[in-house]
Amino acid sequence: MTEAAIEKENKEIAKQYKQLLKISYRTLSSEDKKLIRSAFDLAVDAHKEQRRKSGEAYIFHPIAVAKIVASEIGLDATSIAAALLHDVVEDTDYTLNDIERLFGSTVARIVDGLTKIANISMSEDVSMQAENFRKMLLTLSEDVRVIIIKIADRLHNMQTMDSMPSHKQQKIASETLYIYAPLAHRIGLYNIKSELEDMGLKFTEPDVYADILGRIKESKEEQDAYIEAFNNVIKESLDAEDFKYEIKGRPKSIFSIRKKMLAQNVTFDEVYDKFAVRIIYESTPENEKFFAWKIYSIVTDHFRPNPIRLRDWISSPKSTGYEALHITVMGPKGRWVEVQIRSQRMNEIAEKGFAAHYKYKNKEKEEAGLESWLNKLQETLENSDLSAVDFVEEFKLNLYAKEIFVFSPKGDLYSLPKGATALDFAFHIHTEIGMHTRGTRVNGKLVPLSHELKSGDQVEVITSENSRPTSNWLNYATTGRARSKIKTSLKDEKKQIAEDGKEILKRKLKSLKINLDENTINQMVVYFKVKTSLDLFYRIGAGIIDNQKLKEFASSRSNAFISFFKNRIRKPDKPEDIHKDEITEKLDQLVFGKDEDKLDYKMANCCNPIPGDDVFGFVTVNEGIKVHKTNCPNAIQLQSNYSYRIMPAKWIDSTQREFKAILNISGIDTIGLVNEVTKVISGNLHIDMKSVHFDSNDGVFTGKIVVIVKNKTILNNLAENIRKINGIDKVTRV
């Protein structure tokens, strides 16, 4: 580089630094400025030899990230310093100890968290990538600023990604859409979330992005004219009340327009609410709420509101801290338009997320949302039994959820994701309450655990020491927290059955004169077509592999023909997998409806589902049930036009399946007989009683019992125990 170019670059660096101090959202003390200056000097020195892909000096990147942290997000001087230093430990000779010595432990801790994230290799393998996200989120718990600076870092990388090769652009963009945009949303950084999503779309679907962007620019004039017309109608009334306010139009992000076009299967021109009108008013804290509703009444005096679309986030703010009043009104030219009413304080919180809360004094209340979210996140992270992919899916469930507000019997207010069920509420209060839920009451009425809650419901949980999760609970729970706790509990239960199974197997093999050693286990894993030794023990413990099947295995061992294969089996390809500590599922059977019925079906050609996919059944006119993937291109059209012909469907493991059985009982009626029968059934933990019907006619007793059992052995034992009851004559299975 020529001297003139270097001179020019240095001037630009100095200019950027001055801007950084100027645009900081908070007032910086002289101490703060000193800290930022030292961080800046060290970063300039550390990165002096480095250049970015675009050819510019590397130092421009940390400065840009610090500017986003300072102005867009509004963090403190410590965070600005950490943002300037975020790549120093990773890319240069400076160590973490140097940072701690020069800037103190807080800055060092944040930089360390950022370095840990940077060192995660984002491989193509989904489960590896999921594992890395888990590690990344673990650094979150150390200091939430780590993730906020990381989001700023990602935003600047997305803004300057044009000089990268396209496969890199694709990868970074999809990663951004996968995890960084949802995180920004959850921390309340709505502007940054929108920009990350738009940039993500720009690199994953460039044609779509360019098309929508062009159309938005074309309709810009029309939009301005529309907002002008809207203003003119209410301006006079607002001025008459002496409000100090401004009215802005906010175009919807390109990503959200794209999402709407896909979800509703419409063209750009058919998307109705391409922008929202925002009224931002000045107010003292005590008048905020009063003014918001006053403006609401002025707007609805002039425009007819849609009563279903009123959202009051002022009385009960979102857990991200967001406050505003949203109404949808029939605006000029007969168009629905969303109006957002916010005070200046609320507007700052909406744009800066949690960082803006620090500026306002009511800190305890405001921080509660973030605190409780971080605590929940910590719980999920500590629950290491979840596989990484499951974890990321559960985590994302909690990121984007819209909220409802429900009350406990004492009147405490809880916020839950939209679509949450009574069972979700039980786990939301406390894991132990969730685990022992026996039933739930909503607004005083007993409801099923799968009952979907609505805002304003009062929910009471009935618990019992003997209740514990069953696999059906996964159909009733929607929140990440409840689902992960239920899955862990079911895994623990299965492991317990497997441990018992191992002991049973030892005894049974002994009587067949076979030793239970590694060799035998490997042979049995192959013979019974299971994946791991734990699968084998579980199936023994649950009675799926019974005495008869074990005898068949024993005789197959002594068969000369098999012994030829036995030597081949001795060294299975991957013996290390056989001793994995998990019980796998072989999703091999499709069942339909609430009762999980086996029905005839055909796979749809448009999406070709495979075992394990999320699917639904569609009842066709001539071809019976067709099975489609939930994300099939035709799914939305079928579900909206023919919802009455849609059947819920899911894949199950037929070898682990519980099945329904009906027993008919007859005998001589004696006092206490019904009590004896129900005692026998409820005394067996592996049996779930669905319905019971007893009749007594002139001293003769008949009964019909419907039970859900895991296998035939359990059912036979049950029938045998009922026969032993005094007075019972016959027990037959229908």
TrEMBL record:
SMART domains: HDc, RelA_SpoT
Record GO cellular component, one term: plasma membrane
Keyword Ribosomal protein attached: no
Assigned keywords, A-Z: Coiled coil, Kinase, Transferase
Domain named TGS: residues: 402-463
Pfam family, one: ACT_4
Gene Ontology terms describing biological process: guanosine tetraphosphate metabolic process
GO molecular function: kinase activity
Signal peptide: none
Coiled coil segments of this chain: 495-522
NCBIfam families: spoT_relA
Function: In eubacteria ppGpp (guanosine 3'-diphosphate 5'-diphosphate) is a mediator of the stringent response that coordinates a variety of cellular activities in response to changes in nutritional abundance.
Similarity comment: family membership: Belongs to the relA/spoT family.
Protein name, entry field: GTP pyrophosphokinase
Organism: Aequorivita viscosa
